[in-house]
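Duplicate of #3305? Posting structure anyway:
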């Protein structure tokens, strides 16, 4: 019996910084089962210029205009815009690929919106290794999850937590621990830096029980994360050093993880949870 080919998923991208632009170019180059149909950006004229080299030009629209045109949206924007970006897609029973995972904790109604209308929020692996192992362990009992993040100084400067607590890191000469607490707290104090910690917590034992430390290190050029998990099924540790993108707060692998996620959606063979 011949299978009828499925129409490609229409993809919109909200936010056209370093991550969004990389994803747009990958879609334009070709991801089987997906096609880029629209983007949104704060500076629409600048965004149109950045997309000028695409083989198949797409419109640059207001956020509100994306949902009628697309089957899924990839959110690559400031965290505060998450409800405006994801909400319409979830209410329509569609898919929202979310990079601002920390904002989900401030807008948990989005999960209920997805549940009520048959939509889905997908948080890609992003800059963190081993989320599949944590998800699997969570089907049993996880006793503890600990994460230590070390970042170059320039990737942390200006974080609200540092400003609020009067912590100056611009001239430090040795590693300095600037935070110890939970991913829920870090999502507020470091909204552009610690989406990986929130993703880890959502995969495992939640944003309040997961332990997190953040260090500023003047000797580093890469964002580094180490995770230690104790569970009834396994004990494991993972570490990764991510090369920053042109935005020092975001690793290059973040965009690649979204591209891999989109490629999985239409792949005949899917590896990983």
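Output from current build:
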């Amino acid at each position: 019996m011949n299978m009828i080919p499925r129409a490609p998923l229409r993809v919109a991208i909200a936010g056209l910084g370093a991550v969004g632009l990389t994803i747009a170019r990958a879609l334009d180059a070709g991801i089987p089962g997906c096609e880029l149909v629209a983007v949104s950006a704060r500076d629409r004229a600048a965004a149109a210029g950045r997309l000028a080299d695409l083989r198949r030009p797409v419109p640059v629209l207001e956020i509100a205009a994306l949902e009628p045109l697309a089957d899924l949206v990839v959110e690559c924007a400031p965290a505060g815009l998450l409800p405006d970006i994801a909400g319409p897609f979830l209410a329509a029973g569609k898919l929202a690929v979310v990079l601002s995972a920390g904002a989900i904790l401030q807008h948990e109604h989005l999960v209920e919106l997805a549940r009520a209308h048959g939509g889905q929020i997908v948080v890609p692996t992003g800059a963190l290794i081993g989320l599949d192992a944590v998800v699997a362990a969570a089907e049993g009992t996880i006793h503890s999850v600990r994460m230590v993040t070390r970042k170059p100084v320039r990737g942390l400067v200006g974080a609200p937590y540092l400003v609020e607590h009067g912590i100056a890191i611009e001239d430090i000469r040795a590693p300095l621990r600037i935070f110890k607490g939970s991913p829920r707290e870090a999502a507020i104090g470091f909204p552009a830096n610690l989406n990986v910690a929130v993703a880890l917590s959502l995969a495992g034992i939640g944003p309040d029980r997961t332990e997190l430390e953040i260090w500023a290190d003047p000797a580093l050029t890469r964002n580094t994360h180490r995770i230690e998990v104790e569970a009834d099924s396994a004990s494991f540790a993972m570490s990764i050093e991510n090369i920053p993108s042109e935005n020092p707060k975001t690793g290059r692998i973040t965009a690649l993880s979204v591209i891999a996620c989109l490629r999985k959606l239409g792949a005949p063979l899917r590896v990983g949870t």
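Confirmed duplicate; merging threads. The mean pLDDT is 93. The chain has two domains: 9-127+253-265, 131-249.
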